[in-house]
Amino acid sequence: MSYSTVIEGASFSPSSQTEISYQARQLICLDNNGYIARVIAHTDPDYATVKQTAQANDTLTTLQPNQYVLPGFIDLHIHAPQWPNAGLALDRPLNEWLDTYTFPLEAKYQDTDFAKLVYDGLIQELLANGTTTALYFGTIHNAANLELAKACIQYGQRGFIGKVAMDNPEQTPDYYQDASAQVAVDQTEQFIHQLNELNQTTDLKQTPVITPRFVPSCTPASLQGLGDLARKYDLPVQSHCSESDWENGYALEHYHMRDADVLDHYGLLTDKAVMAHGTLLNDHDYDLFSQKQVAIAHCPISNVYFGNAVLPVNRVLAHHIKTGLGTDISGGYSPSLYQNIRQAVMSSRMLQDGVDNQLLPDKRGVDGSAISVKTAFYLATLGGAESLHLQTGKIAEGYLADLQVVSMQNDFQTETTDNIFEKLMYQTSKADINQVYVQGTRVK
Ligand SMILES: [Zn+2]
Fold it and tell me: β-strands 158-165, 207-212: how paired?
């Protein structure tokens, strides 16, 4: 049996929500369809033969002692058009940030050349940061959304892409909105067909996603129409849910229902739905998400600025809710999921201990909230994969070969494997990510 690529080296992979597995030396064998066909331990009798064959075929990549293979990361929530604003205006409240900074920028994607310029740069940046799959919000403009899909195909990233629907004239500016509910729904359906057509040209399929921006920016008619489309085409859905006090309060005020219940009412909480943030979800919402198998995209950096609370990840996982990690560019400033892994751990520790030093220790925090860096790694890999129904996020036979090879600079060869893993999670920068594979193809 010959393989398209054989990687010889050490690896870390998530084995559960709290544990990782480590292999010191193995052959990771990729097949021509982009899957991991076989993982051969150093003690396996076939090891030498498979290695020799790969060497003879010039398909062997042998890693250095300070290099490690990890699964590629999955960004479960990112606004592609907001990339030029990353790092800007994070001190503003969410509604002001949208009106003053975000909507004017997104409106510019009417210009397809501008879209191509930004998206070409963004996809390369994300791949260079080890992100092999991303769930994208686009804009209302399908020509620009297609540019995003083309950039994913050209540079080799698996994209899930949504034409943003936003037709509520009271909550969207007149220069950037769908002209009516019918237009929002029709354009969404048009994009589904356009993307399916584009997919005929590539093995790396891009998936259309039903994308009501969030409850405030949509009318009941568009929410209904989008829910119908999700069912008709059996497609993923993405939106924001209970992200901030303002958003959480909007549904209560206008619908007299919880934000999650409004989305559910219109058929948008399916087992393929991914809801961003959820910082203000309550136990009723968790039960609903769990029952409907809705996933949460946890965006810890963004939440510091706009979330008005810390998502209690352990509590969410205890409700058996699928959970992954998102950058939420540009509510979050960093395109790196490593940075979000770190922030997820840090935020959870602050939730655990509390932050008001005038309170006694037993009143200050929420017990049992701290997550480990292993759990944050799980969110960035397997948790995201499960949320998108993808067989990836893990180094094992039958999984998609979405991988990153990282090197540890601060390596003195005296560490336990847990220590090496922890240092990799905390110290890896873009420059340390040496190779990236998506569906078996090397893209960096
Ligand atoms: Zn968002």
Answer: parallel
